[in-house]
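Q: I'm building a small set of examples for a reading group on sequence design. Run inverse folding on the following structure and report the sequence directly after it, with nothing in between.
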């Protein structure tokens, strides 16, 4: 069982049996991910075992009103809205939980986010936690909650760049 390197989702990949324990994330992968990617809304990266998707994430551009950003990220006089990147989904199939699939996908997403921001700008990476467990996962990785919503969290891309440079 050798996993692929992260690659873009295509119609050749089997998403039918993917189950991460969060029905909304399973449903998005099975019904929306490929369409969103084909339409240019989201870049969906997957890892697979012989074509069967066992982990994925979605990355997209977004913009945030300055008042929603934590003070540490909203420094200076930011534009309105503030350009950001959205890590909209990150999930690992339960049958692959444990051997680092999710961690590897997260590192890949962070590196790609920094590269994207170097090309087009962006102040922060935004995540929208699906529940309190997920919010805790993101807080442990340096993300700060929004001023309005504890499940919307931010980490500055400069901070991410510094952390991935040390990997």
């Amino acid at each position: 069982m050798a996993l692929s390197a992260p690659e873009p989702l295509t119609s050749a990949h089997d998403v039918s049996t993917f189950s991460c324990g969060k029905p909304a994330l399973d449903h998005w992968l099975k019904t929306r991910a490929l369409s969103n990617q084909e339409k240019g809304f989201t870049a969906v990266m997957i890892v697979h075992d012989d074509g069967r998707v066992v982990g994925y994430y979605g990355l997209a551009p977004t913009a945030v009103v300055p008042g929603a950003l934590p003070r540490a990220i909203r420094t200076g006089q930011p534009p309105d809205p503030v350009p950001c990147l959205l890590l909209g989904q990150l999930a690992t199939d339960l049958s692959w939980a444990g051997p680092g699939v999710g961690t590897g996908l997260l590192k890949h997403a962070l590196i790609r986010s920094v590269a994207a921001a170097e090309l087009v700008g962006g102040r922060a990476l935004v995540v929208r936690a699906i529940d309190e467990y997920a919010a805790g996962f993101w807080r442990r990785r340096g993300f700060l909650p929004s001023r309005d919503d504890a499940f919307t969290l931010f980490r500055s891309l400069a901070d991410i760049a510094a952390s991935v440079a040390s990997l």
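The first helix runs from residue 23 to 31.
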